Amino acid sequence: MQYEYFIGLRYTRARRQNLFVSLSSAISAVGIFLGVAALIVVLSVMNGFQKEIRARILGVAAHVQITGLDNSLTGWEAVAAKAREDPRVLAAAPYVNGQAMLALDGNVRGALVRGIDPRLENEVADVGAHMVAGDLARLQPGEFGIVLGAELARALRVVPGDRVTLIAPQGLVTPAGVVPRLKQFRVVGMFRVDHFEYDSGLALVNIADAQRLYQLGDRVSGVRLKLADLFESRTVTRDLYRSLGGDVLISDWTRSHANFFRAVEIEKRMMFIILTLIVTVAAFNVISTLVMVVTEKQADIAILRTLGAAPRSVMKIFIVQGAVIGVLGTLLGVVGGIALAVNIDVVVPFLERLLSVQFLSRDVYYISELPSDLHLDDVVLVAAVSLVLSLAATLYPSWRASRVRPAEALRYE
Q: Number of helices (H) and strands (E), helices first, in the chain?
């Protein structure tokens, strides 16, 4: 081992006469530890939010949607067959979208009514796997059955078997004026996808009943597609537009729900910048700690210079000492951050029970549980930023130590 490393490590372990210097070194390491751990946990939680939102939205929505120019599509079978010619498209299903009011015993709620084909719906969405009562197969044409989101059913205070009145915005023109169109539907099931927007505002009916309700005839609102790789949706959308021509509108999940994913991505970047400031503050503590060490060790530096140590060697000594603080804090932060990020689903419920609070209310946030998705590249990035800041913080104190003049330092010794 070169003597610079030996002396630097010895200075790190030595008991100093100035207790404040030792305390400052410990605080610097703890600051780096907390900053790194917080960064890893926050980035993992933001990744978890992004993953959960994507999974829950795409469990109900589609990877790609094809609609007509006037929000109605004629001959959907030919469009679906043309889309399925692309090997990246796994399944296609028609749908009808419409707005309506649902009412029962004075309880009224607005909802998005989606007409589906129960046989094809499970191929493009996962609603059937999230049924808490009933089954999508009970949506038979002509029977006017309806499947409600769990929160919507709770707001209306209905259970399977009850009949709700559906009020369509398209009115009937009569001699007495425009009368709203009313139809009673029997609740045949409920679903919960753990996404409050859908659980509280989506109702599913048979596509034939929706066509009759909204007077579409044989037309539908569009066709929904499921892809083998959802991240190829933009490429598939572009290719389908070329093959289907300009008589249809094609959108993918990155556009129809871009606000959610853009918001999460922006928040992730901002949290990274903000929490990096914690590590930066800890790095400034390293600077102040090393400046005090240099002041305390001026006599030692002068002796080393008298024995022939070059200024560059003196710099190495204090760089090593500061690097030890940075590396130790970074390693502890990485270990602590990974441990907390992996066990966030245990820690957060424990804190909620301990403090008798709920951090994410189900009726306020899209996701009521704190998810975590640890990425190796995030851990490497955080550790690298911490080490670079820690090493950069050692340069000025080390340079100042190399500028100590032996004669002046030993004058009063």
A: 16, 10
CB environment 361-390: b (16+ within 10 A), e (fewer): eeeeebbeebbbbbeeebbeebbebbbebb
45 pLDDT higher than 60: yes
Q: Look at residue 400 and tell me whether its pLDDT is greater than 80.
A: no
Give the tokens for residue 407. 């004669």
- Residue-wise DSSP of 336-358: HHHHHHHTHHHHHHHHHHHHT--
Distances (CA, A) of 385 to 28, 30, 32, 367: 16, 16, 11, 31
State the pLDDT at residue 204: 92
Higher pLDDT among residues 166 and 55, named by residue: 166
What tokens does 334 get?
A: 């990485």
Determine phi and psi for 98, rounding to 5 degrees. -160, 155
Mean pLDDT score, 361-382: 74
User: What type of residue sits at position 362?
Assistant: R
Q: Is the dihedral of CA 140, 146, 149, 150 positive or negative?
A: negative
What Cα–Cα distance (Å) separates residue 130 from each residue in 190, 193, 368, 386? 9, 6, 16, 43
CA distance 271 to 256: 25
* Tens of pLDDT, residues 233-263: 888 888 888 888 767 888 887 777 767 677 7
Residue 230 · residue 253 · CB < 8 Å: yes
pLDDT of amino acid 33: 86
Residue-range domain boundaries for the chain: 3-55+260-410, 63-256
In this predicted structure, the answer to whether residue 378 has a pLDDT above a threshold of 60 is: yes
28 and 287 in contact (C-beta within 8 Å)? no
With 60 as the cut, is the pLDDT of residue 127 above it? yes
Estimate to the nearest angstrom the gap between the alpha carbon of 147 and the chain centroid.
29
pLDDT digits (tens, 9 = 90+) for 22-38: 666 777 788 888 888 88
Residues 6+ apart with CB under 8 A from 96: 113, 114, 115, 207, 210, 211, 214, 216, 220, 221
As to burial, measured by CB atoms within 10 angstroms (0-12 exposed, 13-18 middle, 19+ buried), residue 57 is: buried
Whether 221 contacts 73, CB under 8 Å: yes
